[in-house]
Amino acid sequence: MVGAFAAVILPTLNEEKGLARTLSQLPLKQFSLPGRRVEVLVIDGGSTDGTLAVAQAAGVPVLTQTTRGKGAAVVEAIEWVRSLGVEYAVVLDADATYPPDRIIPTLDLLRSGTDLVIGVRRPVWGAPRNRVELIHRFGNVLLSYTASLLARRTILDLCSGFWGVSTDRFAGLSLGEHQFAIEGELVLKSVRRGFRVRQIPIDYRDRLGEAKLHAFRDGGHILLTILEHARPGRIPEPDEGRSQSWGRAVLAICLAAGSSKAVLTCDPSEAAEAQIVARYLRRTLPQTQVEVASKPTPFAPMVATPGADRPAGSALVVSLPMTGGSPGRSRAVTISIRSHQRNLTVELPSNVGDGPPDAAAGAWSRAGARAAAFWLPDRSGSSLPLITSRLNYDAQIQQRTLLQANGFATVVRRDSRTYWGNETATVNDPAPAV
């Protein structure tokens, strides 16, 4: 563990099957890159099955928990790796529900100055399949929505079991939660401190093994945690205003958009920077196809919103085709970067949220579309479309919500005009009609 810059922490309690699958899917080759070594650590709370044997067979060190509860285990593990000089930690449940393919992008966001990265769960099976799952899903939505209202910040998945954090930042929060509410306490205290938080989508799968969470008992505990810690805090400085690589900003947008292809179109004067961004994306997201085309960039007429400056000059434009949807509909997100102005803008297609839901989403998506009216303005001028985001399975609505939650300025193109948002990520079109 000494000399590693990051640790992947897997809390376990009788997770023999889930741990075996999780360890088998870790990107070990990427964990051993020079100067970027990542170590894996299991912290065990007293397993009586074959969990310890699985870890031993994989050569993964095991830290025996001296306290009780998942929250206490995570605090103990992060404090231990921090004492060895490890800068960052990624925590994920060891029940095989979270694919490890988002570990490396999470670490890259942390290295770029992000304090906390939250994995927003997207179940691979879509809408809830039974009553119990519906209760769990709806309960999580209500908890996240309540936390967002009280904290005045968009929090899409308060209880996610996948997150990454700076170990120094984590230590400064003095977390005291010993059970399943640790994620809620972590997120809410980070918001109050004004930490830079990124929220990225992550596939969520069926767990292996017996669930430890009790919906009503633990849900009530989490609600008490929200009432205790959720209050407005400092708004973090926008990444666009800080000196950073455009590649890392584009990475955050690629993750939020859920795209498997990025097309970088740049003015010849921006070709060198476009290549840097492309190399960075290929290394961080090896499953994403990245293309670069250098040519003069045309721009449509601009209509400025009140208080927004009209962009000018050459730009690096990144086109991200959106996932899902019907043939023939525009699914591209365009990111325009003007280096000399340090300006980054995300453009969404005009039919986002306005067209009919995808057929695959079915009645559940239509119910989510009706819930889209519950948008409340937050202190920074953006929205809290929690009900829409978590209950609507239309890909475009989910992508817009993630972009807004990450603080990116967004614009909507209509009738060959572009309406430019401000630094607080306001989308200048009305909410979908009920």
Q: Kindly report the oligomeric state of this protein.
A: single chain
Query: What is the helix tally?
Result: 14
Question: What's the architecture of the largest domain, going by CATH?
Answer: Alpha-Beta Complex
- CATH top level label of the largest domain: Alpha Beta
Number of domains: 2
Question: Which sequence of strands runs across the widest sheet?
Answer: 9-8-11-12-13-14-15-10
What's the helix and strand layout?
Elements: E1 6-12, H1 16-24, H2 28-31, E2 38-44, H3 51-57, E3 62-64, H4 70-83, E4 88-92, H5 103-111, E5 116-123, H6 131-151, E6 162-166, H7 167-172, H8 182-193, E7 197-204, H9 215-229, H10 246-257, E8 261-266, H11 271-284, E9 289-294, E10 302-303, E11 316-321, E12 332-338, E13 343-348, H12 362-370, H13 386-391, H14 395-405, E14 410-414, E15 417-419
Parallel strand pairs: 1-2, 1-4, 2-3, 5-7, 8-9, 10-15, 13-14
Antiparallel strand pairs: 4-6, 5-6, 8-11, 11-12, 12-13, 14-15
Helix pairs in contact: 1-3, 6-9, 8-9, 10-11
Using brief descriptors, characterize the structure shown.
about 425 residues; alpha/beta; Spore Coat Polysaccharide Biosynthesis Protein SpsA, Chain A; 2 domains; globular
Report what the structure shows.
By secondary structure, this protein is α/β, with parallel strands linked by helices. It has two domains: 6-229, Spore Coat Polysaccharide Biosynthesis Protein SpsA, Chain A (Alpha-Beta Complex), CATH 3.90.550; 241-419, no CATH class. It is built from 14 helices and 15 strands. The protein has helices at 16-24, 28-31, 51-57, 70-83, 103-111, 131-151, 167-172, 182-193, 215-229, 246-257, 271-284, 362-370, 386-391, 395-405; strands at 6-12, 38-44, 62-64, 88-92, 116-123, 162-166, 197-204, 261-266, 289-294, 302-303, 316-321, 332-338, 343-348, 410-414, 417-419. The chain has an eight-stranded mixed β-sheet with strand order 9-8-11-12-13-14-15-10, with helices on one face. A seven-stranded mixed β-sheet has the order 3-2-1-4-6-5-7, sandwiched between helices. α1 (16-24) runs parallel beside α3, α6 packs parallel to α9 and α8 runs parallel beside α9 (215-229). The longest helix is centred in the first third of the chain and has 21 residues, at 131-151. The radius of gyration is 21 Å and the shape is globular. 47% of the residues are buried. Mean pLDDT is 74; it is low at 240-244, 299-313, 323-330, 350-384 and 414-434.
